[in-house]
Amino acid sequence: MRICVIGLRGLPAVIGGIETHCENLYTRLAALDPELDILLLTRNGYTELGDHEFQGVRIRSLWAPAMPGVETVLHTFLALIHARLFVRPDIVHLHGIGPGFFSLLSRLFGFTTLVTHHARDFERPKWGIVGRTFLRAGEFLAAHFAQRVICVSNALRETLLARYPYAANRLITIRNGGSLVRDTGKNDSSVLEEFGLAQGGYILAVGRLEATKAFHELIEAYLLAEPADRPLVIVGSAFTEDEYSRRLMASGSDRIRFIGFQNWDALRKLYENAALFIHPSHMEGFGLVIAEALSAGAPVVASDIAAHREFELDEHSYFRPGDIPAMAGLLSQPDYSRHRSAHACELQRLNTWDGNAAKHLKLLREIAPRRSRKSAATMPARGIDVVHSARRSNRPQ
Q1: Residue 326 belongs to a domain with what CATH number?
Q2: Do residues 196 and 104 share a domain?
Q3: Domain of 219?
Q4: Running DSSP on this structure, what letter comes out for residue 104?
Q5: Residue 112 DSSP SS3
Q6: Considering all CA atoms of the chain, what is the largest pairwise distance in Å, rounded to the nearest integer?
Q7: Which of 38, 66, 180, 293 is most solvent-facing, going by the fewest CB within 10 Å?
């Protein structure tokens, strides 16, 4: 079964939720079924040029213009033409509703088309009317022409179902895994010492430096709360520097520390040793950083949005989006241990990337063209029990 993946910038270790998703998913799919021929068509500037392989996955970097808003559109179009001329895949897997705009073209090229809906990107304030219209059209075309649309959370599927009820049999939920399992054995103290941090002595936030993540509101709440001897550490960067990220970085100080993009191992140590993890985002398709924090056993508080509710934190660990006094009240507490939810951590422990990959493998075998389905049916998922359901559930799937 030949699968062509389009919509990510690159991998490994490229910032972005889609990139993290793809790095975890496709390397595991390649391990589950060696008969899969997985080719990722990535963008130049994010990965090395030419063809290379990463953990069983082939990567081919294609040209893309370094222009926000144009890069995704033009690269997806060129990648589909490249796939038609040189790859001829059984399945094209498009990631995001921007690339999802080309679902019809993918079908016209004769490809079985799968789209993963990661977030309602048209709700991001950075887009003007043209960008929002394009992204809404991408969601519409994906819902109409893709053989399946994977939603990364039940909340996202319910929203999509309300808009396109006639697509119900093609909308499914496969929640992101989010469990951080990589570890090189680097000890805690070396990572913390690098950033001048103490075990249990800092508040952590992780994400891209963009307005929907609401780090500006978090900083305002932190300054209002003034938690004793606990700096605020923000991990992440922007795809491209803009006015918002510049203003945000300008607020950095000894107490508010921006430490940029971090690799898997450093990030896990930062989660494990945080006094509190906080995610104030106004809009998420899933909330991958919350999944990572829970997998590391951190106390977690988060904005009260539908995607975050699926993690089933304790009620007192949610706050209204944009409610700065409420955030300040949480941050000013002397002890954050009440926000460590054994229930939520256990749910996340069961919601692994291995399980996510197994569900994807079952789906790929279901929608594969007949010519590849026969050989795929002979390859078991190496003992992993695959459970696939599109039914509404408040539990991780």
Answers
A1: 3.40.50.2000
A2: no
A3: 188-350
A4: H
A5: strand
A6: 64
A7: 66
| Per-residue pLDDT tens listing for the chain (397 residues) | 999 999 999 988 888 889 999 999 999 999 999 999 999 999 998 887 779 999 999 999 999 888 877 899 999 999 999 999 999 999 999 999 999 999 999 999 999 999 999 999 999 888 899 999 999 999 999 999 999 999 999 999 999 999 999 999 999 999 999 877 655 455 556 889 999 999 999 999 999 999 999 999 999 999 999 887 899 999 998 877 789 999 999 999 999 999 999 988 899 999 999 999 999 999 999 999 999 999 999 999 999 999 999 999 999 999 999 999 999 999 999 999 999 999 999 999 899 999 999 999 999 999 999 766 555 444 444 433 333 333 333 333 3
Amino acid at 169: N
Is residue 223 domain-resident? yes
Q: Please report the beta strands in the chain, taking only residues with DSSP state E, as ranges in sequence order.
A: 2-6, 37-43, 50-54, 57-62, 91-95, 112-117, 148-151, 171-173, 203-206, 232-235, 256-260, 276-279, 300-303, 318-319
Q: pTM of this prediction?
A: 0.89
Query: Whole-angstrom Cα distance, residue 388 to residue 397?
Result: 8
Domain assignment of residue 345, yes or no: yes
* Rg of the chain over all Cα atoms, to the nearest angstrom: 21
